[in-house]
Every structure is written in C-alpha cells, then in structure tokens.
C-alpha cells in the first residue's frame, strides 16, 4: 500500500484527488491551514479530514512514497521543507496524474473558456455509452460523485488548465499531460497575476501544442485568430472546428448534423460549439456522431456552469462560474439570446485578474447584452488578497453602463427586487457574493 500526503488537501481538486486515492487503496493523509465546505464535509465522510488545521513538519515521515503539493501552499511551507530535507518524492497534482496516466490514451481539453463544460460533455457521453475511463475535471458533474477518478481504465479525460502547477513548479498544468487527442476552445487573456503580458499567456498555449506527440491531433475553434496563428506555426496535426447548425429557445436546442436533428438540453452558441468539439474528439476514439448526439441529449451542464437554478413560464435565474471577460460576454449573450424579457446580469469581482487595475479594461462591454448590469465587490477583498484597492469610478468606467455595489445586503435587495418584477437574472462569479441572501436560493 502506497503512502501519500497532500499539502493543501482542502483545495477543490486536491480533496477530490485525496478521496480518489483513498478509495483506490492508498494510505492518505493531508494538511491545510483552512478547509471549507464542501471539501470539509467530503473529507470528513471519508475519514480524511485533518485533526487540526495548520502546518506541522512532524507529519512528514521517511516512509511517505510521495508528497503532493497543492497550489495553495507557499514555497516556505514547513511540511514542504521537511519533505525536501528527507529527499522525498514531491509532485504537483498534474505531475502525479500524468505519471498515473502515462500508459493510457489521453484526451485533454484546454482553452481560456468552456473547458470544464466541454470535458463534462465528453464524460457524460462516455458514461451514457458505458465506456470505462478515468477523468480529471474542475467541477462537480451530474452522475459523478468525484471530480477525479484514477483506476486501471485504458482512457483518461483531463481538463487541461493553463494555471501554474505548484509553488515549486511554475509551468502550466496542461504541459504535463502529453495528449493523444485534444481541444483548444479559444484564447482570451486571463490569469494576469501569473502571465503579466498577453504574449506570455499565448506562449503557454504554444508550449501546450508542442507537447502533442507525432501521432496526436488537436481541434481548435476556427474563429479564434490566436489559435489560427498557432496552427499556422506548428507541425502538430490539427483541425479547426466551427459553429454547427442549430436553433435554440428556452426549452433547449435542436442541432442539425449529418442530415439528422438532435434535441438537446444545452443553450447558447458557445455551448453548441463546445459540443461540436466534444463530438469530433469522441469520433477519434470510435464513437460515431449519431451515437454521440443521442447520448449528449440528456446532458444539462457542469456544476456552476450555466446552471439553471429557477425557472417559471416567464422567468429564469441562472448561475455561472464566469469570471474572465470572454466568459462573461459569452454567458450574458447566451441568456439574452435564449430567453425573452428583461435581463439583470450580476458579476462579482473575485479572482486576482478581475481585481487587477491593469486587467479591468478588458471587461469593457462584457455585459452589454444585459438590460441592466451590476458589478459587485467587497472592499475587504483587496486586503485579503493583498492587492491595491480599485476605485468604484474606475471599475464603472472599465465596464460601461454598470452599477457598482459593495454591500451584500444592497446587492440582495436589488436582485430580489428584480426577481419580484419578473426579470431574468444571471449571477456570475467564482465566489459566493459574500453570502448575499437571494430569495431564489
């Protein structure tokens, strides 16, 4: 039995990885300075919740086979220092997953937006067709109790994140996976805190393309000018994909492909583009289009991605994880295109990029499709993230035609009033709006 210790076990992926390894027969321990739900409850159910919070070098012993280091940990972490002193094997979670999957057929989904949903679409179809596969995805998915599975399956589906691997490994996570088949959904600037220029951000996708082997192929969205440029540079086999023929309304979408029509639950042009990319990838592993789209008909979305939380005959409320400019724009337009009526869009500044003064101008026009737009942020978030405060007037100028709100109580009052009027509502954040009390929750 292998012994594994996870530093920063409370992370979204890290705690799922810990549970997956525990179920696979590993002896798992972990530590963190704070763990919140759902990670806390999930770890507690599996008997993996640390007895106390904080870092303790004494838990690092010579009999550990591997120490997995989460991105939340700092480089001066005392447990990390002890592991290095003992000469233990220390890996980031993408390196660990890559080692485990080195003999599998690897499908990786990358891109600045849509990668979680596209990965979930592939997982859903494979599950519906009863195929055996492993996976790593950045969200909860209906039908899967964990976001990580590591078994003896011959195939693995991986959401390829461009963020850094760990405090010791400043490469993008997706550079570890060496895919046989992959998708790049698009490139739109994000993560300014680790890619200070757009050129550096594009370059990490260039490096990702270079990790494909001689027999590999990747699919890319043909309307993305940066992906077109990278495709022209590389010798790696690649194929562009486009927007499929479809019609959408509030009841879903009808996709027209190969002379047939398929009724789907997903809405919005970008979701249909993601689904088309997923279909092309599945074709590479022997799933024909008819089987794919019939299996995809029951897909309703990934957790917190275009999640419908309330619907009546004349009103809808959606929640989405959108936080980058491209995601904000695509999600707002998708809801406005699909549903009649007035749309209130609400966006919380929560990520390092969205709170960065130099990055904020990229949000210009991001919620233009909404009839009314609110940008919410709590002043204390800047102190918490050790970032420079950004004045409300500057934020409003960057977004255009938005109302700036700082208080969760005022935000709740405005959203609840719109809800009572019958407006459609779209909430976008990677956070929780400071626990604002919405009537529809």
The CATH class of the largest domain turns out to be Alpha Beta
Mean pLDDT: 93
CATH architecture of the largest domain: 3-Layer(aba) Sandwich
Distance between the termini: 44 Å
Oligomer: single chain
CATH superfamily membership of the largest domain, which one? Mur-like, catalytic domain
Gyration radius from CA atoms, angstroms: 22 Å
Which segments are poorly predicted (pLDDT under 50) over 5 or more consecutive residues? none
| SSE-based structural type | alpha/beta
Helix content: 25-40%
Overall 3D geometry? globular
Question: What profile does the largest beta sheet have?
Answer: 7 strands, mixed
How large is the count of helical segments? 13
CATH topology of the largest domain: UDP-N-acetylmuramoyl-L-alanine:D-glutamate ligase
What is the percentage of strand-forming residues? 15-25%
Structural domain tally: 3
How many runs of DSSP E, i.e. beta strands?
A: 20
The strand order across the widest sheet is: 7-6-8-5-9-10-11
Question: How would you characterize the overall build of this protein?
Answer:
With 441 residues, the chain is an alpha/beta fold. It has three domains: 3-88, Rossmann fold, CATH 3.40.50.720; 96-296, Mur-like, catalytic domain (UDP-N-acetylmuramoyl-L-alanine:D-glutamate ligase, 3-Layer(aba) Sandwich); 307-435, Mur ligase, C-terminal domain (Protein-Tyrosine Phosphatase, Chain A, Alpha-Beta Complex), CATH 3.90.190.20. The protein has helices at 12-23, 39-45, 78-85, 93-100, 115-128, 198-210, 225-233, 269-283, 289-296, 325-338, 380-384, 392-399, 408-421; strands at 3-7, 27-31, 66-69, 90-92, 105-110, 134-136, 148-149, 155-159, 181-184, 217-221, 237-241, 245-249, 252-257, 260-264, 307-311, 316-320, 343-348, 372-376, 403-405, 424-428. The strands form four sheets. The protein has a seven-stranded mixed sheet with strand order 7-6-8-5-9-10-11, sandwiched between helices. A six-stranded mixed sheet has the order 15-16-20-17-18-19, with helices on both faces. The protein has a four-stranded parallel sheet with strand order 2-1-3-4, sandwiched between helices. A hairpin with a 2-residue loop joins strand 13 (252-257) and strand 14 (260-264). The longest helix has 15 residues, at 269-283. The chain is globular. The mean pLDDT is 93.
